[in-house]
Here is the input.
Amino acid sequence: MMSDGFKAIWAVLTVLAVIVVLWYAACIPMNIKGVLTEQERAGAEVQPTSAKDRRDMSEFGLVLNNSFAIPATWEQDRPRLPAPHQVAIEIWETTVQKKITSKRSLIYHGWVTLSATMLGFVIGTGLGILLAVGIVHSRVMDLSVMPWAIVSQTIPIIALAPMIIVVLYSVGIQGIIPKAVISAYLSFFPVVVGMVKGLRSPDAMQLDLLRTYSASRSQGFWKLRLPASMPYLFTSLKIGIAASLVGAIVGELPTGAVAGLGARLLAGSYYGQTVQIWSALFAAAILAACLVGLLGLVERTVLKRMGMAQ
Amino acid sequence: MTNNSRQQTCIFEAAHLDLTFQTNDGPIHALKDVNLTVDKGEFVSFIGPSGCGKTTFLRCIAALETPTGGTLTVNGMTPDEARRNRAYGYVFQAAGLYPWRTIAKNIKLPLEIMGYSTAEQDERVRSVLELVDLEGFGGKFPWQLSGGMQQRASIARALAFDADILLMDEPFGALDEIVRDHLNEQLLALWARTEKTIGFVTHSIPEAVYLSTKIVVMSPRPGRITDVIDSPLPKERPLDIRDTPEFIEVAHRVREGLRAGHADDE
Amino acid sequence: MILVLFAIVVWVLGWWLNSRLASGPYADTRLVRFLAPFIFGVTIIVIWELLVRGLEVSLVILPAPSVIAVRFANSLPILWEDFVQTIIKGAFSGYIIGCFAAFLMAIAVDRWDFLRLGLLPVGNFVAALPIVGTAPILVMWFGFDWHSKAAVVVVMVFFPMLVNTVAGLREATAMQRDLMETYAATYWQSFLKLRLPAAMPFIFNGLKISTTLALIGAIVAEFFGSPTLGMGFRISTSVGQLSLDMVWAEIVVAALAGTAFYGLVAMIEKAVTFWHPSQRG
Ligand SMILES: Nc1ncnc2c1ncn2[C@@H]1O[C@H](COP(=O)(O)OP(=O)(O)OP(=O)(O)O)[C@@H](O)[C@H]1O
Ligand SMILES: [Mg+2]
Here is the structure.
């Protein structure tokens, strides 16, 4: 229905607009103290005059006393909370206006993270699918491995990341591989669990039907189990790719890596470059959204091809 | 009967009732020009092929669906006002018990909502469980019962509070013949005792004839009433009334009505 | 070399044992379902020990399980302090605040259609983002101590919890809602008696997903700055000092905490949603 679609878009836009307005509003109390210090240094009249009094006063009181400083809270160099347009400008300048080979280009950093994510994701899902097939076809593997795969879902295995980076570094492996290893094992377990569920999703009646045709095991796999598992596979792929991205970003933290979105986050937090942190965060968010969206697109076309889409 | 007294006893009245569902594949004319008056204390059955709008009509009476044309009054009020006066006990096509409540707690649900005292609740639960032959099952959960028992529990839930109007949508469809006969008898006894008005949807001609004072025959596409039969059977009805010529005569008329509906469908 | 051969023997033995169990007559009993993964886990640990010793793998690459166990036993006070700092103060408080806030928000979203239309797509979108990335910002705002870790956890669990709860509150079937309608039940009556109980399986799904997220958030946030204690802090500094046995000891704690936390929520779930087909077994 046309009007329903409009209503939904209208609602989403309203919510987004409210978020932006709240964001701008939040900038005022968040940044007022820093702004007043700067303004005082620049020679402006600030109420109250002593820095100590200001520190003890609430942000809202300061804003009321110094309403002239409000516009400046949206234009600070290193604000506690950058205004939306500051982040937007930073993203614009570091993507479109920088050569992608530049060390300051977000596209360059994004690519460093993305390549590790993708490599790890492909390895992790590949191995995950293989293990799932093994588990479904082998009772021993099902009994001995599957419980551990499930348990792994409840453990913050990302805590292994710093160690993996350092250990691989100490044996001379660095660059994309260690991060890909982290991405791989983070996407591996969700895919195993989801795929096993999917391969087991055909019900007894469907399996019995194939038995009446006296279909072989491999026929049963290719004609029934694998197609039936596709919706489950895609659901876990989406979880897996999000986990992979987080893994690649966290993998960039411990060694003081110089490239990648995680490195930008860390460097930004060292030097108080908040605008840089926020733009790296948005870049990561956009990357995640694109990856998940892309998978959703593939999902829809594949399922439609297979006649499984609703 | 004078016109005046008729006004007083009439419990629901539909005039030129129309209902069209707007769906993605175009409008569906579920009810067309439905005219019906039902007096207080009557037992009305609705019978007709699948999709002819029986459920829809019942839902209109209970204010779960809003007609797109015509008027419908219940006790002189709009259906929505009647609903807010808690005039309806409704039994759906499926049992629809809450799986997280025991049978007894399920029956208490409307009583809790309507603010009955705890003692009163317990008393009513006991008596309606007895009525539907489920004594001793109050502590069980719905999924521990057979489909037929669940349906009986849902009838008990509708009987637990004193609604003037009982609307039942194929309540006995899932039950075996014996239980069905038994519940039909019970329902008639209850109806005779309480002076409730009952709207009852069924697919079974004998059931409709056995229970009703008025049988409404409907036909599909668009859903409409093709015949309204006032039963000449006495109010006192033992089960073997089904072998009497009067009974067979009425059943025959219903079947003719259904056939006619089908014929102009072709 | 002997140890390596021995490792291979242990592997074959373990696998043979599990094969016998799996094809034996008791394969579907509780005992075997517990025994098989247990044997597998023990086999892995024994092989790990034997290989590390046999191949003389350096301590800074992979410490043997026995070394880790000794370190674990010797550092109990430190591990406990770190556990309290990260799990109890950071993860747990953030988890409670975040889940509760999301629950309240979900009620509002469920009540006003406009919010559902507008906020839910945004929530779904945010739930898939790498939210741990907000850690440096929140550390900057709330300081190095556990408050900033709790804040990261709040942000991390909020959206998955919101999306799940909203989905759950819409779970009641049309017929169940109609029933409430025929009783002329008020909004809160139908909320408490119908929609909330029907939503419980979904709410617990959100709560279970959130347990892991909470631990991840609390640990990773410490990589961006922390006082001189906490599991994330200990992991990153121990990695720097190449004392990997300590890192592994912390990981053991994290694993135990993660399973215990999840298990606790799953146990409560079993008690609350006993009626749901997935729990009836
Ligand atoms: N909510 C709805 N939206 C669109 N169409 C509907 C809706 N409810 C019912 N209909 C349509 O209205 C018509 C009448 O439906 P109704 O459920 O009243 O039939 P019925 O006589 O109760 O059938 P049955 O004996 O199978 O229960 C059908 O064609 C059905 O498809
Ligand atoms: Mg019907």
Notes: The domain at 106-306 of chain A is CATH 1.10.3720.10 (MetI-like fold). Chain A is about 75% helix and 0% strand.
